[in-house]
Input
Amino acid sequence: MKEQSLSIIIPVYNEEDNVLPLHQKITEALDSMGQPYEVIIVDDGSTDNTAQRLKELAKADNRLKVIHLRRNFGQTPAMMAGIDAATGDILIPMDGDLQNDPQDIPKLLAKLAEGYDVVSGWRKDRQDHPLKRNLPSRVANRLISFISGVHLHDYGCSLKAYRKAIIKGVKLYGEMHRFVPIYAAWQGAKVTEVGVTHYPRVHGVSKYGFDRTIKVILDLIVVKFLDKFAHKPMYLFGGFGLVTFLISFLLFGLMLYLKVFHNKSFIETPLPMAVTLFTLMGFMSIFMGLIAEILMRTYHESQNKPTYIVDRTRNCKDED
Output
């Protein structure tokens, strides 16, 4: 059986003091495994000397691929650039701040060998600020697990391992790199997690702030929408429209009741305005659902994208 190759994907931004020791640690860990690998470092528009340090490293090691982005796009686009450039059978993203330990990579691979498709790192003893980073992270992880139905302790840990076939064709936006295990699980992949080492940051400063938490919550709403309604958006918009029509009907009935039994003029209450408002909301929601349905069909049919995913075949042409 052919030995599987590895692609280590590392987005970095202003990590000039970390890239040299990071490269050394990764090389030591992977060389000891004796497995073919490549390291892809994506420079996300750094403004310090990160680009120069990477240039020097790439000259000395042809297994190191360096991608320089024109400006700072963010961690998810940088991760996507690394995924698109990867040639390995197994993709392993990790942070470039030396807080992940490359020596944990064999743990991830051992779990994959048990039959899993995605193995996520779990920083059980996380070395970050307990209130600014750890507490919001715990709350976010529980919320994500509850909404998605995919129960992991640490979605924010970048150190993960994916079989390439699982994320082939996946396009990531916003802060959605952390939600790849959810996408994979919804497509039938087997997902698990293992405990990994986490070190305190020594050089540089964290790029995470409170605004990142807000973005993650909003992206989670998008992910949930794509799971439930991407193929039938009318179920969401049309359902909301029917609810508003029902509210409008009930308010209209209340308006007539007050008129007939309590001699209340229509203009004495805000009910006529509310009936009109909810009726218009109902029509607008239905129309939005129809437009979304047309867009969804255009998306699939114009690009010949199937609405299903084949796992394997038997006695079929182009069989895996």
Remarks:
- The longest strand covers residues 6-12.
- The chain has two domains: 6-229, 234-302.
- The CA atoms of residues 124 and 224 lie 27 Å apart.
- Residues 234-302 form one domain.
